Amino acid sequence: MVKVKKENQPARLKIIQTAFDLFHKQGVNATSVDEILEKSQAGKSQFYYYFKNKEDLVHSVLMFFYGQLKNNELPINNKIESWKDLERWFYNFVGMQKAMNCDRGCPIGTIGSELVTGQDLIRQDIKLIFEFTRNSLSRFFHGLKVKGELKDSVDPDVLADFCFTVMQGGLLVAKINRESDIFENSIQQALAYLKSLAK
Amino acid sequence: MVKVKKENQPARLKIIQTAFDLFHKQGVNATSVDEILEKSQAGKSQFYYYFKNKEDLVHSVLMFFYGQLKNNELPINNKIESWKDLERWFYNFVGMQKAMNCDRGCPIGTIGSELVTGQDLIRQDIKLIFEFTRNSLSRFFHGLKVKGELKDSVDPDVLADFCFTVMQGGLLVAKINRESDIFENSIQQALAYLKSLAK
Amino acid sequence: MVKVKKENQPARLKIIQTAFDLFHKQGVNATSVDEILEKSQAGKSQFYYYFKNKEDLVHSVLMFFYGQLKNNELPINNKIESWKDLERWFYNFVGMQKAMNCDRGCPIGTIGSELVTGQDLIRQDIKLIFEFTRNSLSRFFHGLKVKGELKDSVDPDVLADFCFTVMQGGLLVAKINRESDIFENSIQQALAYLKSLAK
Amino acid sequence: MVKVKKENQPARLKIIQTAFDLFHKQGVNATSVDEILEKSQAGKSQFYYYFKNKEDLVHSVLMFFYGQLKNNELPINNKIESWKDLERWFYNFVGMQKAMNCDRGCPIGTIGSELVTGQDLIRQDIKLIFEFTRNSLSRFFHGLKVKGELKDSVDPDVLADFCFTVMQGGLLVAKINRESDIFENSIQQALAYLKSLAK
DNA sequence: TATGAATGAGGCTTCATTCAT
DNA sequence: AATGAATGAAGCCTCATTCAT
Known about the structure:
4 copies of one chain form a homotetramer.
Chain A: H1 5-8, H2 10-26, H3 33-39, H4 44-50, H5 54-70, H6 83-99, H7 107-113, H8 120-146, H9 156-177, H10 181-196
Helix pairs in contact in A: 2-5, 2-7, 5-8, 6-9, 6-10, 7-8, 8-9, 9-10
Chain B binds a DNA duplex through residues 8-9, 11, 32-34, 42-50, 53-54.
C-alpha cells in the first residue's frame, strides 16, 4: 500500500506551497532555495531531505499543483458543461489576476516561460497540466458536438487549443501591462467567435 | 558636426545583440553578465562602461529592439495592409519559432514574463513595444472599417488586442510544448473569426 | 538546556578577531572580506553564514569589543579609583601604541573616523563604547568630588570628556606621526591640569 | 623660472578641490577616482594627465591645502597673538564642524587616520601640515614666555602639542558623536588650564 | 591637452549543495 | 528526521589604471 505522505510531512508541504507562491510571483530563477526556506520557516537540511535538488522541488511543486487540479481542489472550474461555465472559466482567470493587482501571470506558464532545452522532466510536468486543462475544454466542445449543438465543420480539440492559447496569452499580457483590459477584450472576442459556431 | 555615437561602439552593440539572443534563449535571470561578455568577446569592464548595471542592459536591449522594430529592420511585417498580410504576420511567428525548433518564445514576452513589481522601466519598455505591435494591427482593422469592409459593431482596437493575445499565448505554449500545433490551431481559429467579421 | 552558541562557533570568533585586527591596522574600507577570510582561514561562505554583510561584521566586531570591555577582558583599566589609576589609564594607551611601533591608533576611533552619514548602527555601537569609557572616568571624578577631594566648581563629566578627548587626539596624532611624544606631552599637561583641581 | 600652474589648469584645480571635499566627507579609501571625476566634471584621462595615480592626487590635495594654509587663505587663524585669538582658534573648529552638522572631522586627520605602513609620502605631507599648525600655537606661547606672561616652568612647545591634541581629539569625537559638546567641554578645560599658567 | 574606450583584478554577496552530528 | 556549519563556484559590480587617437 502507498504511504500517505502529506499528513506526515508538514514541512515538505509548507515548502512546496511557499515555493509555488514564490515561483508564481517572481519565477523559478529569481527564487532562491534560501528564500523558500526562510519564508516556509524550514531548516536548510529539511529541504535536501525532502528534495533531491531545486529542480526536484520544481517538479514536486508542479505535481502538487497537478494533484490539486485533478482533485478539483483549485478555484478553477474544470467541469465545463455549459456556455456559462466556459465564460466563468475565462473570467475566473481575470478575476484571480485582478485579485493580485495583475502582478502575476499563470503560475504554470510563468514556470514554463523559463524552460530551456534539456529540462525535460519539468517540461513534461507542465505539458501534463496543460493537457489536463485543454481536455476540460475539449470535453465541453465534444459534448456540444455530440449533442449536435456545434457546427459540423469544427474540431472540438482545436477549439480547446484556441481557448487555452487565449487564456495563456491574456494572462501574460495582463501581467506585463498590470492591467487586464487586453485580456478581457480578447476573451470577449474569443467567446463571440465560439458562440458563433453554435448551431 | 555631430558625432554618430552608436556606429563607433562595436563592443556595445555586440553586447546588446548577444544579450538579446541569450535573453531570448534562456531568459534574463538565467543569463549571467559573464556569459554575455564571454559570448560577445568583450572585456569584463566594457560592460559597466556602457551599461549602468544589468537592468540597464535589459533596458538597452529592449530599446535596441524597439528601434529595429520602428525602422522595419526586423523580419516582422508591421505594415499590415491586407488579410494576406495579417495571415503572414501570424504565420511568421510560427515560422520563426519552427526555425528554432520551438525552443524559444517571444523574445519580449520572455523578458516580460520575468518581470516583478518595481521593475517599472523595463515594464514600460515592453509596453511600448507591445503597443507598437498592437498599433500595426489596429491600423489595419481601422482601415478596413473606414473602407466599410468590417461589420459596424466591431472595435478595431479590440480586434488588435485579440490578435496580439493569440500571438503571445501561441508563442508561449509552443515554446513550452516544443511544438507549434496548438499555436497554429489557434491562429486558424482566430483568422476564421476575424474574417467572419468582414462585410 | 540552553545551548551556548558562541562557544560553538570558532569560525565566527576567528573571523571577528581577525577583522578587528585588520580594521585596527588599516581601517574598514581598506580591509576586504577576502583578506579577512584568508587570514582567518575561513571558507568564503562561512562569512555570509555568520554575518549579513560587511557592515554587520563591523557591528559584530564592535559588539565583541564592547563585551570584552564590559567584562574587563581587555588590557584597559576601566576601574579607575585613584590618581595613579588615571595615570596608568593614560599611559596604557601610549604603551600599547608603542608596542605596535605607533603604527596604529585607537581601534574604535579608527573605525569611527571612516563613518559617513547614514551608518547609524555602527555609529551607535561606537558611541556606546565611548560612553562606557567616559563613564569609567566620570565615576572616578564623581568619587573624588563626593569625597571632597575636588574643587567644587568642576563638573566630573566634563573632566571625563576632557580626558577622553586628549586620549583620542593623542592616539590619532601619534599614529600619524609614528611617534608618541606629542601624545605624551599632552597627557602630561592634562594630568597637570587635573591634579591642579584637587583640593 | 617656475611656471605658474594654477592659473592655466582649471581642471587640475577643480579635481583637487573636489577630491579634498570628498576625502573630507568620506575618507580617501571610500572615494573613487571615478566619483571625483564625475563630481568635478573632468574627463577620465585628465586625471592621469595631471596626476601619476590616486596617491599622487592625495599628495597634491595635501600640498594644495598646505599652500592655502601658509598663504592664510583658509578660515583658520594661524596668527595667534592673544588669548582671545587662541580661544577663537579653538572655537573656530567647533564652528566649522557645526556648519557641517558635525558630519565631518578634521580633513587632514581624516586622511591621516587611514594611513598604513609604507605611505610615507603622504605621512610626511600631513606631518608638515600638523607641524605648521603646531608652530602657530608654539609661537604664541613662546611669545608669552618671552614677555614673561607665562610661568617659567612651562614649555611652549608642549603647550602647543597639548592644544593640537585636544583639537584633533575633539574633532574626531564630535564627528563620531555628531555632536560637539564633548569637544566644547574639552576646549573649555584646556583653556582653563592654559590660562592658569599665565603669570 | 584632451577624449572615449579598454583592461583585468578584485570588491561584496548569493547561490545550490553537502557534511558531520 | 533534523540540525547548524561548511563548501566553493558563481553572481553582479567597482576599482585604479592604460591605450589609441
